[in-house]
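Q: Given only this backbone (678 positions), what sequence would you predict?
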C-alpha cells in the first residue's frame, strides 16, 4: 500500500471531452493518470468510465492545443508531452465530408480525418472507382469563389438546395478495408469500353459498394450543361493573379484533414492536381476519363486556361453535340466494340512477327541514325520599333538544334544562326481557316527569352516541325519513339480545326434544340449572337460527328493538352535579389518565370536539369540548383511555399511510375520527395 501523499505526487488529473450522441451521459471526464501511462491505457480508462456499450474502435484522442492526433497507442503521456493542462478530445477518426468533383457534382462520404491526405485521397478514389489516385488531391475553394457564391445565394429569391450524392454507407469510408468497392486490382474490365456503362455482372460482384449502377452513371457520364446565367454567376479568373488564387488552397498531402483545420461536413474540391494522366484506358477508366474531361471542360468554360476562338469552337462541338448528345441517348448504352482485340493477343501476335523478322509498329529504329528535317520555312523576328521582318530561309533540324541558311545550296557551309531548342518554350501560332501555321519559339538567353517565329506552308510540314521542336525542348531528338505519335496527335487536332466542308453539310441551326451559349465561355457569348454561335459550332461539329462517346472525351482531353497553357499552375513569387513580384508557372516538366504584367515568359528551368532543391522553412524560401551552376531562390507570396515544394516533388515522383508496378505506389518515396522537414 502507498500513502495518499505519495499517490498525489505521481499522478494528476487529465480532462478529456468525449464526442458521443448520448445526451443523458456527460461529455467531460476527469481521469487520474500518471506520466508513464500509455495512450492505449488512457482510452481504456476512459471507456470504462463512460459506461456506454458501443463500438469505440474508430475513436482516437485528438489534442486540441497542439492540433495533432495521438495515434501511437504504445507511447506514454510523457513521451507525447501531454501534461495536466492538455485538452484532449475523444472522437471518431472517420467523419462525413462533402466533396465537389470535377463534374461539379457533390458527393457526401465518410473520410479518415486522422490519415494523411495522400492516404485519404487514395481511399476516396477507391470508393469513386478512380484509378491512379496519386494524380488527385483536395483543394480548398478560393476566397473570391466563396464570396461570389455567397453573393449569388444572397441574391437568390429561392433557397438554394444542392443535389448531393450520398455515399455515406461506403465500406471503405467506414474504415473497413475489406471491399475494393467498384475498384478491381486484378484489372477485370468493369465498364463497356465504348459507352462507359458499368457491366452489370461486376456490380453484383461488389454489391456492398455504394456505387450502384445509377450512381456510377452520375460519375461516368456527362450531364446537360448549366445555363449561361449560372455560368455568369460562377467565379472566373480575369488575370494571372486571379489564376494564382485558384491554386493557393491545395491541402498538405503529408498531414491529416483535422490537422489542417477541416471540420466534419465541410466542403472541399476533389481535383486532378498533377497533369500527367498515366495509363488512361477506356476499359477500366470510365469514371476517371469522364472526370478529367469535366475538369478540362470547366477550365475552358470559366477561362481558367486561354484558348483561341478556333479552339473554343472545337471544344464546343465536341461537348455540345458529341458528349452531351451521346451521353443522353440510349444508343450510347447499346454500343459494342467487336473489332477490339484482346491486349494479350495483340502483344503475342506482335512478338510473333518480331521473332519472324517482320516489321511492327514498335520495331526499333537504327539508333545510330538520328533523323533530320530540311525544308524551306519563313523566319519571323519581332522588332520593337518596326514591322516584323519575314524572310524565307533553308532550315535544317538535327538533334535538338535548328540551323538556317540563305538557301539550300549554302547548307553545306556555316549557318547564318544555330538555335539550340533544349529548354525553350514552344507555342503553336495557328489559324487553320486563314492557312496560318506558325511555331513560336522562346529560347532562353542570358537576359531572358529570345523570341523567334517559324512559318510553315501547310499542315503536314507544320506537324513534323512542331513535333520536332516539342521534343527538342525536352532534350529529345526525332529518333525518340514519341516523335511519330506527336506528329499524328498534331495532325488529328488540325483536322478537327479544318472546317472546309460543303455548305449543305451544315444543318440549319434553328432546327436543332441547342443553346450554344452553354458550350462557350462568356467572352464569346458577348461577341456573337446565338444563331451565329450555333452555326459555327455546327460547322466545327462536321469533323467530329463520327466518333464514339469515349473517343470524343479522349479527343477533348487531347485537345486540352495541346493548349500552350495546359498543366501550368500559377503562383505569385519574389525571386531572391529582385525588387518586384513575378509569376511562377509550375508544370509537369518545368518551372517558368513569367512577367506578371504582360504574361510573357522570362526564363524556363526544366526538372531534367535540376540537381537538388530544398526549403528554408524559417524564412519560407525555396532554393533550387540546376546544371551549369544555375541556382534560383524565391519566396511564395500567394500561397505557402510547401505547396510549390510538394508540386515539384510530386511531379518527380510521378515520373518514376511504370506500367509493370501493378498499380502499387511507393508512398514512403512520395512523402520523402514532398514532405519537407518543417
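A: Predicted residues:
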Amino acid at each position: 500500500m502507498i500513502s495518499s501523499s505519495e499517490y498525489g505526487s505521481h499522478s494528476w488529473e487529465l480532462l478529456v471531452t468525449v464526442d458521443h450522441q448520448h445526451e443523458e451521459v456527460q461529455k467531460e471526464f476527469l481521469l487520474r493518470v500518471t506520466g508513464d501511462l500509455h495512450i492505449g491505457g488512457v482510452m481504456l480508462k476512459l471507456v470504462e468510465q463512460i459506461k456506454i456499450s458501443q463500438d469505440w474502435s474508430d475513436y482516437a484522442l485528438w489534442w486540441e492545443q497542439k492540433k495533432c492526433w495521438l495515434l501511437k497507442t504504445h507511447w506514454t503521456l510523457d513521451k507525447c508531452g501531454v501534461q495536466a493542462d492538455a485538452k484532449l478530445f475523444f472522437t471518431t477518426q472517420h467523419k462525413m465530408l462533402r466533396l465537389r468533383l470535377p463534374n461539379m457534382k457533390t458527393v457526401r462520404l465518410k473520410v479518415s480525418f486522422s490519415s494523411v491526405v495522400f492516404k485519404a485521397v487514395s481511399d476516396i478514389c477507391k470508393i469513386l472507382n478512380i484509378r491512379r489516385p496519386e494524380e488527385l488531391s483536395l483543394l480548398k475553394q478560393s476566397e473570391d469563389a466563396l464570396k461570389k457564391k455567397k453573393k449569388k445565394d444572397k441574391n437568390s429569391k429561392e433557397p438554394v438546395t444542392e443535389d448531393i450524392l450520398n455515399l455515406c454507407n461506403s465500406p471503405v469510408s467506414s474504415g473497413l478495408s475489406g471491399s475494393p468497392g467498384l475498384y478491381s486490382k486484378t484489372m477485370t474490365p468493369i465498364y463497356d469500353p465504348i459507352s462507359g456503362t458499368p457491366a452489370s455482372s461486376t456490380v453484383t460482384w461488389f454489391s456492398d459498394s455504394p456505387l450502384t449502377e445509377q450512381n456510377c452513371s452520375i460519375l461516368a457520364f456527362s450531364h446537360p450543361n448549366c445555363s449561361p446565367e449560372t455560368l455568369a454567376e460562377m467565379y472566373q479568373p480575369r488575370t494571372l493573379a486571379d489564376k494564382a488564387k485558384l491554386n493557393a488552397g491545395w491541402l498538405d498531402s503529408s498531414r491529416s484533414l483535422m490537422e489542417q483545420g477541416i471540420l466534419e461536413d465541410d466542403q472541399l474540391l476533389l481535383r486532378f492536381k498533377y497533369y500527367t494522366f498515366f495509363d488512361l484506358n477506356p476499359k477500366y477508366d470510365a469514371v476517371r476519363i469522364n472526370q478529367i474531361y469535366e475538369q478540362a471542360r470547366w477550365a475552358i468554360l470559366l477561362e481558367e486556361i486561354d484558348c483561341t476562338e478556333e479552339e473554343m469552337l472545337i471544344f464546343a462541338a465536341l461537348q455540345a453535340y458529341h458528349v452531351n448528345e451521346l451521353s443522353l441517348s440510349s444508343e450510347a448504352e447499346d454500343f459494342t466494340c467487336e473489332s477490339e482485340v484482346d491486349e494479350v493477343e495483340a502483344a503475342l501476335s506482335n512478338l510473333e512477327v518480331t521473332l519472324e523478322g517482320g516489321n511492327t509498329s514498335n520495331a526499333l529504329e537504327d539508333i545510330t541514325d538520328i533523323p533530320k528535317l530540311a525544308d524551306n520555312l519563313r523566319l519571323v523576328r519581332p522588332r520593337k520599333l518596326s514591322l516584323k521582318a519575314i524572310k524565307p530561309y533553308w532550315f535544317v533540324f538535327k538533334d535538338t538544334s535548328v540551323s538556317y541558311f540563305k538557301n539550300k545550296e549554302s547548307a553545306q557551309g556555316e549557318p547564318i544562326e544555330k538555335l539550340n531548342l533544349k529548354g525553350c518554350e514552344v507555342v503553336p501560332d495557328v489559324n487553320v481557316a486563314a492557312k496560318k501555321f506558325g511555331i513560336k519559339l522562346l529560347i532562353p538567353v542570358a537576359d531572358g527569352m529570345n523570341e523567334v517565329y517559324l512559318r510553315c506552308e501547310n499542315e503536314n510540314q507544320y506537324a513534323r516541325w512542331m513535333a520536332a521542336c516539342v521534343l527538342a525542348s525536352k532534350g529529345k531528338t526525332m529518333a525518340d519513339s514519341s516523335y511519330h505519335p506527336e506528329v499524328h496527335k498534331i495532325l488529328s487536332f488540325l483536322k478537327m480545326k479544318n472546317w472546309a466542308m460543303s455548305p449543305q453539310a451544315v444543318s440549319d441551326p434553328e432546327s436543332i434544340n441547342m443553346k450554344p451559349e452553354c458550350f462557350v465561355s462568356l467572352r464569346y457569348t458577348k461577341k456573337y449572337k446565338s444563331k451565329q454561335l450555333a452555326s459555327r459550332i455546327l460547322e466545327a461539329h462536321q469533323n467530329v460527328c463520327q466518333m464514339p462517346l469515349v473517343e470524343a472525351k479522349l479527343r477533348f482531353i487531347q485537345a486540352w493538352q495541346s493548349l500552350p497553357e495546359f498543366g501550368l499552375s500559377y503562383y505569385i513569387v519574389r525571386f531572391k535579389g529582385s525588387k518586384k513580384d513575378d509569376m511562377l508557372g509550375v508544370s509537369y516538366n518545368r518551372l517558368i518565370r513569367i512577367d506578371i504584367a504582360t504574361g510573357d515568359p522570362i526564363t524556363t528551368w526544366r526538372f531534367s536539369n535540376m540537381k537538388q532543391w530544398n526549403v528554408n522553412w524559417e524564412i519560407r524560401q525555396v532554393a533550387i540548383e540546376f546544371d551549369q551552376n544555375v541556382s534560383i531562390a524565391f519566396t511564395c507570396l500567394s500561397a505557402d511555399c510547401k505547396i510549390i515544394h510538394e508540386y515539384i516533388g510530386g511531379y518527380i515522383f510521378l515520373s518514376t511510375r511504370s506500367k509493370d508496378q501493378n498499380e502499387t505506389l511507393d508512398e514512403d518515396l512520395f512523402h520523402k520527395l514532398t514532405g519537407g522537414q518543417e
